[in-house]
Write a structure and sequence with these properties.
single chain, alpha+beta, Ubiquitin-like (UB roll), Rossmann fold, 3 domains, six-stranded mixed β-sheet, three-stranded mixed β-sheet, 26% strand, rod-shaped
């Protein structure tokens, strides 16, 4: 009985090894939507929505951070919004050039990076400036608003006049006495000088009538303050205590025919 044919393998024509039979080829076929049960489709749809809801906050946060980073880079890292102008408001005793030099803000530096408080302090160090405020005006302007000092008296010094404000700060030197300011003769004008403080205290106590007649106030010592009035009349004031009483008494005696009025002791007044 002859053997049956070999299954799956045949001898090669050249008597070599076995030869493989036909190879099966597999192919994936996507099932139609009707092949997936409705309950499974609903479950998968809910799962997708849950994944989207979970990812949405992260996507929004990432977008916000990206926009914020872009804005920060534009404002802080580029010259797109750089300083192009320093606008000065309220300058009379100082020039805009002096203010810009004191501000020391380079052209083109990002406006957002300017330290406004430090810039205001640098400008406020100018003697005529009592207070400075610095603000931003986008896209490229710094606005400097000044409050300058107001003169209270003019102190003769080396042939010129040093103008001091109500706190004794010397902030200006002029060749002549500014209009409306009394002349105060002091040795060392300044906010820490006792003579300067005494003179300013007396000036603040003067009545309008005395102020209108005043030509000079002299501080020869803390207890040797005197006023020189129009007509070469003198009021001996003494020290700065009881300034309001002394001013009232001296005003009442302005009509007297006297060259010298002594109100250093306002309860016992002498004149001659």
């Amino acid at each position: 009985m002859s053997p049956g044919p070999a299954r799956g393998r045949t001898a090669g024509a050249d008597g070599g090894g076995p030869r493989r039979g036909p190879v099966r080829r597999w192919q994936l076929v996507r099932a139609g939507s009707d092949a997936v049960p409705p309950s499974t489709r609903r479950f998968m749809a809910r799962a997708r929505r849950r994944r989207m809801r979970a990812a949405l906050p992260w996507a929004v946060a990432g977008g916000v951070l990206a926009v914020a980073g872009l804005v920060a880079w534009t404002l802080l890292g580029t010259g797109l919004f750089g300083v192009r102008e320093v606008r000065v408001v309220g300058a009379d005793l100082v020039t805009p050039v002096e203010v810009r030099d004191a501000a020391a803000v380079p052209d083109g530096v990002p406006l957002a990076r300017v330290d406004l408080a430090a810039t205001a302090r640098r400008i406020g160090a100018l003697p005529p400036v009592q207070r400075a405020t610095v603000t931003r005006d986008w896209p490229g302007t710094l606005v400097v608003t000044l409050v300058e000092r107001t003169g209270a008296a003019a102190v003769p010094h080396d042939g010129r006049y040093v103008v001091i404000d109500g706190s004794g700060v010397a902030f200006q030197t002029t060749d002549s006495v500014p209009d409306g300011l009394p002349v105060v003769r002091l040795d060392t004008p300044g906010p820490d000088d006792p003579g300067t403080r005494a003179a300013l205290e007396v000036l603040a106590a003067l009545t309008p009538q005395l102020r209108a007649e005043l030509t000079e106030l002299t501080v020869a010592g803390l207890a040797r303050i005197s006023l020189t009035l129009r007509g070469d009349r003198t009021v001996i004031w003494g020290d700065a205590t009881r300034a309001a009483d002394k001013a009232r008494v001296a005003t009442a005696l302005l009509g007297r025919q006297a060259d010298t009025i002594d109100v250093s002791a306002p309860d016992v007044v002498t004149f001659r």
